[in-house]
Structure formats: structure tokens, C-alpha cells
């Protein structure tokens, strides 16, 4: 018998856990900083609800109607066709994302450790880049952290859908929410936080151009975990009473709220520490160079607060990343169990060991392998770039085309209304978006990221 999420709240929290991750706390503030603040946020929210929500509903429809892993889903719903490759592509993408994601996730363990043992105390802006580059380029330390992280993920996944994923999502997500709330309150009440708050609230539309819109859409996709069958796999565990529309709406709202709240932690704290938000001070090194310094400077006279704030922050990032790696792991584990008849523990072990090996290679690309490049990118960059710029958008485009054009309208309607027991409005609009708006918009992101625009 296939396992199910036992409760509606469990289903929402598991899917939200997949969505909320490094994408919200690391990538979103960077994109917001780069693309001009509040105006970007408004466009981002538009993308989440106009394109992200419909594509998420498509993944839900595919997953729950097929009751199968993402590759099996297409085999069942479109037997004898080439659609199965979309599912297989998803599994492959899961492998690739997981392998580099755990490198960054591992770094957060090291930073939580540095925070716990008070090693940021007394450091200045000049020290943090050195601390980071020494750590990341060390061949062993990051690998130890990565291995710990993959094992944590393995531990949850191997327990199964109800006792592993659902149970831990119910524990981790509320903890994450409480931490974010506490940190937002701490950050906005810092002296000097006002500039950061207005950066997030006063839109400057003069900076908006086509590129900004496409970046917002790419970020929305990444943040909602769309395009590789993660949410399709989770939806295959939803029970028959779960309302797909309500669940999708909840996940979109939670994911957006957490991203915004991460913004309300990072920008006010950065302005309190004297950073100039408009000048692009908030860069890619945000989480590991800028922020530890921000936490030191913002509470320069209150070392205890600095200590608590840093520790809680890195704990938060670990929790967020963990609920996402669980979902990435589950895509591959369920694929191997259902398609090749592996026992769950064996399938999970294969994925865990493979990810550790690939993860090690990605990790070493900051040290001994940094000069090994393909198309001008290190292995880590190549994995990151290919998955977020190529594989996810391609997957997302095919998913919306599959539900918009291929699946029977009655099947889609039956899933969305739970066979006529729920009232769902806007089905026509949804199908229109899936047929035309989403594929074209995604094609836009895609061409933009390949610099073909
Ligand atoms: N949504 C995750 C985040 O925001 O960090 C990243 C992610 C997880 C992307 C799972 C894609 C995916 F399938």
C-alpha cells in the first residue's frame, strides 16, 4: 500500500517545507537587492500567483491523479508516449540540485557552529571574507559538514512519508516560523533599521525592465520548487480529501511570507550596520560574509544580542534547507522504490551515497578543483547554473503544456474539485494560463537566462 500524508496540515507543511529553503533566505534577498527592492518584490508576488500557482496546481494534479513517483506519473497518465522523459528529467534534476544544494547547506552547519562557539566575536569586516574563503577552500571541513547534512536528510526520508517527512515537517516548519518572527522583530527594532525598511516598502519603478521581470519569474519558480516533480511527488501522497487549490494557495502564501520576512531580517539589519543597500553591497556572499559582519556591527555594544541573533539565524537557515533537501531526496528515493522495486532503505541509501560523492566534487570546486572548469564554470557553478537556468524552466514548461494541452479536461476538473465535491472557480482561466501564458513566460525566462534576449 502506498503511504499518504495523514492530515491536511501535514500535506501543507511538507509542501511548504520543500518550497521554503535557501531560495527564500539566500537567493531572494540577493535578487531583491540587485533588482531594486520594493518594485522587484511586487513583480515577484505577481509571478508567484499568476504563473507559479497554476504550475504548482499542475504538479498537484499530475501527482495525485497518478499516485506515483514523478517518472511513473507520466508513464501512467500518458502510456506509450515520450512524456515519460519529462518525469525522468525531473529525477535527474533532483540529483543535480541536491548535489550542490547540500554544499551550501553544509556551510550553514559550520556557521551555526562558529556562532555557537562565539567565534564571530570581535571580528571586523576584513576578517569575514578570509574566514569564509579559508573554510570553503579547505578540502575536508566543508565535506564533513556536507556529510552531516546529507545524513540528517537521509534519517528523515528513510522513515517514510508519514513517520518521516510529515512528522518532521510538522516539527521543523513551526520552529522555523517562530525563529523568523523573532528575528524580524529583532532586526526592525535595531537603531538605523529604517533605511532597510523603506528599501523594501518604497517601490522605485524606474529600475524595472524586462530583465527584472524575468529574474522575478525565475526566482518564483526556484523558490516554489517547481519544474522537477518535487511537488508532484508530494502530491502523490495527498489523500482524496485534500483540496489541491487550497493547499497550493497556502504553500504560495507561506513561501512568499517567509521570503518577505527574510528580507525584513536582512535589509534592516544591513542598514543598521551601515551598508548601502542601493549600491549592491548585498551580494552573492550575503549569507557567509556580509551577514556575520552585519550581526556583529548592528549590535556592536551588545555582544550577547549579537551572539543570540547569529546563532538563531544560522539555525533557521539549517531548518529551511533541511526541509527542502528532504523533498529533493524523496523524488529520487520514491523513483527507485517504485520503478526498480528497491526497498525504501536501500533506495534512500543509494541516493544518499551518490549525493555525498557528487556533493564532495562540488565542494572541492572551491578548493583543489577550482581550476577544473567546463564552459568557464567550476563544477559547483555548472550544477547550479544548469539546474536553475535550464532544467527547472524546461521541466516547468513541459508540465504546464502537459496539463494544459494533453490531459483530459475532465481529469483536471475532477482532481481540482475532488470529483465534484468542492467548488472551484476559475478553471477556464487556469487552463488558459497553462496553455499559453505559462509556457511563453517560461520560454522568456529561459531565453533571458541564456542571454538570447
Ligand atoms: N525551493 C527550494 C528553495 O527555495 O530553497 C529549492 C528547491 C527545492 C528547488 C526543490 C527545486 C526543488 F525541486
In DSSP terms, counting alpha (H) and pi (I) runs of 4 or more, how many helices? Answer: 18
Question: Which ligands accompany this protein?
Answer: 4-fluoro-L-phenylalanine
Biggest pleated sheet: none
Question: Which runs of at least 5 residues are low in confidence (pLDDT < 50)?
Answer: none
As a whole number of angstroms, the C-alpha radius of gyration is 21 Å
End-to-end gap: 49 Å
Name the average pLDDT: 92
Binned strand content: under 5%
Helix and strand run: HHHHHHHHHHHHHHHHHH
Structural class by secondary-structure content: mainly alpha
Please tell me what the overall shape is. globular
Q: Can you count the beta strands?
A: 0
Portion in helices? over 70%
Can you walk me through this structure?
It is a single chain. With 453 residues, the protein is an all-alpha fold. It is built from 18 helices and no strands. Helix 3 (38-66) runs antiparallel to helix 12 and helix 5 (84-116) packs antiparallel against helix 14. It is globular. 53% of the residues are buried. The model has no long low-confidence stretch (mean pLDDT 92). The structure holds 4-fluoro-L-phenylalanine (PFF). The site of 4-fluoro-L-phenylalanine has 15 residues, from helix 1, helix 2, helix 10 and helix 14.
Amino acid at each position: 500500500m502506498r503511504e499518504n500524508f495523514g492530515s491536511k496540515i501535514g500535506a501543507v507543511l511538507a509542501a511548504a517545507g520543500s518550497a521554503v529553503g535557501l531560495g527564500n533566505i539566500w537567493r531572494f534577498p540577493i535578487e531583491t537587492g540587485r533588482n531594486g527592492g520594493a518594485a522587484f518584490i511586487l513583480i515577484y508576488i505577481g509571478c508567484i500567483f499568476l504563473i507559479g500557482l497554476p504550475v504548482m496546481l499542475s504538479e498537484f494534479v499530475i501527482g495525485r491523479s497518478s499516485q506515483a513517483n514523478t517518472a511513473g506519473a507520466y508513464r501512467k497518465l500518458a502510456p506509450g508516449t515520450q512524456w515519460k522523459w519529462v518525469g525522468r528529467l525531473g529525477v535527474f534534476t533532483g540529483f543535480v540540485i541536491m548535489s550542490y544544494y547540500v554544499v551550501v547547506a553544509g556551510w550553514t552547519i559550520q556557521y551555526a557552529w562558529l556562532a555557537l562557539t562565539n567565534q564571530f566575536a570581535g571580528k571586523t569586516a576584513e576578517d569575514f571574507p578570509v574566514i569564509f574563503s579559508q573554510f570553503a577552500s579547505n578540502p575536508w571541513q566543508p565535506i564533513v559538514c556536507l556529510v552531516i547534512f546529507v545524513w540528517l536528510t537521509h534519517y528523515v526520508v528513510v522513515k517514510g512519508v508519514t513517520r518521516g517527512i510529515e512528522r518532521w515537517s510538522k516539527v521543523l516548519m513551526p520552529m522555523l516560523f517562530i525563529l523568523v518572527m523573532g528575528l524580524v522583530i529583532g532586526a526592525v527594532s535595531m537603531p538605523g533599521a529604517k533605511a532597510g525598511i523603506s528599501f523594501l516598502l518604497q517601490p522605485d519603478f524606474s529600475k524595472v525592465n524586462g530583465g527584472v521581470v524575468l529574474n522575478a519569474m525565475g526566482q518564483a519558480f526556484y523558490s516554489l520548487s517547481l519544474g522537477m516533480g518535487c511537488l508532484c511527488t508530494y502530491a502523490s501522497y495527498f489523500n482524496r480529501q485534500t483540496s489541491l487549490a487550497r493547499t497550493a494557495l497556502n504553500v504560495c502564501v507561506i513561501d512568499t511570507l517567509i521570503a518577505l520576512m527574510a528580507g525584513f531580517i536582512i535589509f534592516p539589519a544591513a542598514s543598521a550596520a551601515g551598508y548601502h543597500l542601493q549600491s549592491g553591497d548585498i551580494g552573492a556572499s550575503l549569507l557567509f560574509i556580509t551577514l556575520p559582519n552585519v550581526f556583529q556591527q548592528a549590535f556592536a555594544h551588545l555582544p550577547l544580542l549579537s551572539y543570540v541573533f547569529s546563532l538563531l539565524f544560522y539555525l533557521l537557515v539549517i531548518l529551511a534547507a533541511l526541509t527542502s533537501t528532504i523533498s529533493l531526496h524523496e523524488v529520487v528515493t520514491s523513483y527507485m522504490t517504485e520503478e526498480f522495486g528497491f526497498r525504501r532503505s536501500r533506495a534512500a541509501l543509494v541516493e544518499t551515497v551518490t549525493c555525498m560523492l557528487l556533493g564532495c566534487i562540488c565542494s572541492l570546486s572551491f578548493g583543489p578543483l577550482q581550476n577544473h572548469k567546463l564552459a568557464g564554470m567550476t563544477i559547483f557553478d555548472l550544477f547550479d547554473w544548469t539546474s536553475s537556468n535550464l532544467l527547472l524552466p524546461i521541466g516547468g514548461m513541459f508540465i504546464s503544456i502537459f496539463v494544459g494541452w494533453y490531459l483530459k479536461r475532465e481529469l483536471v476538473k475532477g482532481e481540482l474539485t475532488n470529483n465534484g465535491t468542492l467548488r472551484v472557480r476559475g478553471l477556464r482561466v487556469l487552463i488558459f494560463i497553462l496553455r499559453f501564458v505559462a509556457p511563453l513566460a517560461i520560454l522568456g525566462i529561459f531565453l533571458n537566462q541564456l542571454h538570447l534576449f
